[in-house]
Amino acid sequence: MSDITTAQVLEMFKYIKNSYGRISKYGAGDKGECWSLPYNALEAASASLPCLTCGEAAKYVWGRFILEGEAKSGDVIQIDGKVEMLTKNGHKHRFKHHTMIIISKSGLEIKVAHQWVGSKVHYDDYNLWNQSGEGRMSYYRPQQALK
């Protein structure tokens, strides 16, 4: 598979922008889980999607695994375990299991789009150097769908 194109990233961002301030849901039974936003954004961009029927771990593989330093706009961050991060305005967010889409990245500063269960799509700015906890942040580069 190949990495998604710039045009596909723009389609993802179009979906996110249209979802901002609303709850992004996958199907009627979804409460607006955190993973629903990147799943729906990838679907809108005709990108490869995680396998929802391949077990819990496969559901959170968002493409090709990359290193933090390689991350850029359109990539997906998957958090597992306990991670605490401060927003640029000083609010502490605690994550146990969470999924976010990188909107922009400059050095260790990132802007992400995300939602929590039942909350609306919103943006947050984080400094990656200002994180703690025993958890893991994995970075994924979305892939083009097989034709």
Structural summary, described in words:
- The protein is an alpha+beta fold and 147 residues long.
- The chain has one domain: endopeptidase fold (from Nostoc punctiforme) (Alpha-Beta Complex), CATH 3.90.1720.
- It is built from two helices and six strands; from the N terminus they run ααββββββ.
- α1 (6-19) packs across α2.
The second-level CATH architecture is Alpha-Beta Complex
Shape: globular
| Helix content class | 10-25%
Largest sheet: 6 strands, antiparallel
| Number of separate strands | 6
Count of folded domains: 1
Secondary structure class reads: alpha+beta
Which helices and strands appear, and what pairs or packs with what?
Blueprint: H1 6-19, H2 36-44, E1 64-66, E2 76-87, E3 92-106, E4 109-114, E5 122-132, E6 136-141
Antiparallel strand pairs: 1-6, 2-3, 2-5, 2-6, 3-4, 4-5
Short description:
This protein has 147 residues and is of the alpha+beta class.
Descriptors for this entry?
147 residues, 16% helix, alpha+beta, single chain, endopeptidase fold (from Nostoc punctiforme)
